[in-house]
Automatic annotation (TrEMBL):
It is found in: Cytoplasm. This is Phenylalanine--tRNA ligase alpha subunit. InterPro entries: aa-tRNA-synth_II, aa-tRNA-synth_II/BPL/LPL, Phe-tRNA-synth_IIc_asu, Phenylalanyl-tRNA_Synthase, PheRS_DBD3. Its cofactor is Mg(2+). Its EC number is 6.1.1.20.
């Protein structure tokens, strides 16, 4: 209907200079809502090139709620004046006025009325009228604006009223319309596609087709996106590669207790191995056996010692070794790699290895803990290296992430001696937080593998989640991993750049 009204009016008078004058039947389209309907109709006609239009914006002054009240009942100062007795009569106190007019009106009105000498104080301190019939200019201006949208007081007065929050501007939009190149009084539906039916019936010959809009923006293409953890992982990988490390194949989540614990000289009675800390698998029931001679050396080291150690002197069970579990650390992978290094053709060669992958622990979940997380793991195996090299590595590695303040604290791991926890100063939290665990692997772990005596192996593990949460300001780890993950955020989170020295 609106489209027809536009087209017939254009047909009759050539142009429409003010779309607010349009009517449909007897309904005027002058209101802001009417103009929104006109715009929708115009855009549709514009897409068919039947009309062209320009938008005209006017600012109109309207009264606020308080402005309306003043226009109706007078300004605060006028109301104060009106409520007071004539001079000579007993005056009213502020308390009396407040009871009659309300605190707001008295607060603003009393001062203004006094300043304009509309009211005065009598001998007892009460207020009485001082002027006979004051001109309430504020209410007058507001009434004028209310009926005409303008005031004879001009711009300065409007600004003043706006400052007092009595008036505000409203944008009013209307359109000026003229005929377009495809103008017609009737809207044709244009075909958007050439169909088999049109070809078969021959109707294509008389059909009119909609123009292609080559400038249209396409739908945003939907592609995959790296998870924030993978973005941070990628930065870590680059730092490792830059420092000459090789990546270990860590894509196997299930290990035997042998590789996850025994081979690392973790006693079979260690509490970390219990059900409440480690996830064990029911099936499959068994895994490939480790090399028999190696298994035997590991068993002996646990039970009776060797390589300068007295061992744990506790029973060692093959059944315990064969249990399948979800690896509790990626150090299980490092261990298998170290065994490979010791037994590769040509013998041991120094190596720097890393992996960043998932580990599992039977833990209650909360805002900062999940039963699965990622470890950033590394080992450096070489002749005659020391704890000093490990500290040097940490400073270099974290320095490349822009993290220059580290502290080291002695710790305990069954498989390293000495062991160190690594702490970093967290600017946001204003305290030292633990970022990783590390150490020099024990001979009880390395020598049964067949590594030469002079070889020292440094190792460490950090979490990937912690730097990711800091980097992306994520408070709850459960919004990063798991069913509460915000997929929209996964797509839009930027790539990571650690601040490096230039
Ligand atoms: N496996 C340790 C952990 O899970 C990390 C570590 C790796 C410590 C290697 C020392 C040596 O916390």
């Amino acid at each position: 209907e609106v489209q027809t009204a536009i087209l017939t009016t254009l047909d009759a008078s050539g142009t429409i200079d003010d779309s607010r004058k349009l009517t449909v039947g007897t309904t005027s389209l002058g209101s802001p809502e009417g103009q929104a309907v006109v715009k929708a109709a115009l855009d549709s006609l514009l897409s068919k090139e039947m009309v062209e239009y320009t938008q005209i914006t006017n600012n109109l002054w309207v009264l606020t709620k308080e402005g309306n009240e003043i226009a109706d009942t007078g300004s605060h100062e006028y109301r104060v004046w009106a409520a007071l007795p004539e001079a000579g009569q007993p005056g009213l106190s502020v308390k009396d006025l407040t009871a009659a007019l309300g605190a707001d009106t008295v607060k603003v009105g009393q001062g203004r009325a006094f300043k304009s000498k509309w009211i005065a104080k009598d001998a007892t301190g009460g207020f009485v009228k001082a002027a006979t019939e004051p001109v309430d200019a504020t209410a007058g201006a507001l009434r004028e604006i209310k009926s005409t949208g303008l005031t004879s007081g001009g711009e300065a007065e409007l600004k003043e009223l706006q400052k007092r929050k009595l008036v505000q501007t409203r944008k009013l939009i209307h359109y000026s319309i003229k005929k377009g190149p495809q103008f017609a009084t009737e809207v044709k539906t244009l075909e958007t596609d050439l169909t088999v039916e049109m070809l078969a019936s021959g109707s294509w010959e008389n059909a009119e087709f909609k123009q292609y809009n080559f400038a249209a923006k396409g739908e945003p293409t939907d592609g995959g996106a790296l998870h924030p953890l993978l973005k941070v992982r990628e930065e870590f990988r680059q730092i490792f590669f830059d420092m000459g490390f090789t990546e270990m194949p860590a894509n196997r989540f299930v290990e035997t207790a042998f590789w996850n614990f025994d081979a690392m000289f973790v006693p079979q009675q260690h509490p970390a191995r219990e059900l409440q800390d480690t996830f064990y698998l029911k099936s499959p029931a068994s895994a490939p056996e480790p090399p028999a001679d190696y298994y035997e050396r590991v068993r002996k080291t646990h039970e009776v010692g060797g390589y300068g150690s007295i061992g744990y002197r506790a029973p060692f069970s093959r059944e315990e070794s064969g249990k399948l579990l979800l690896r509790t650390h990626t150090t299980a992978v490092s261990t298998a790699m170290l065994y490979e290094l010791a037994n590769q053709p040509g013998g041991f060669k120094p190596a720097k290895l890393f992996s960043i992958d998932r580990v599992f622990r039977n833990e209650a979940t909360d805002a900062t803990h999940l039963a699965e997380f990622h470890q950033v793991e590394g080992v450096v195996a070489d002749y005659d290296i020391t704890l000093g090299h490990l500290i040097g590595f940490m400073e270099e590695f974290f320095g490349r992430m822009g993290n220059k303040t580290l502290r080291f604290k002695p710790a305990y791991n069954p498989y390293t001696e000495p062991s160190m926890e690594i702490f970093s100063w967290h600017e946001g939290l204003g305290k030292w937080i633990e970022i990783g665990n590390s150490g020099v692997f024990r001979p009880e772990m390395l020598e049964p593998m067949g590594l030469p005596k002079g070889v020292r192996v440094l190792g460490w593990g950090f979490s990937l989640e912690r730097p990711t949460m800091i980097k992306y300001k994520i408070q709850d780890i459960r919004t990063l991993v798991g069913h509460k993950t915000d997929l929209g955020a996964v797509k839009t989170r930027p790539a990571v750049r650690f601040e490096k020295d230039d």
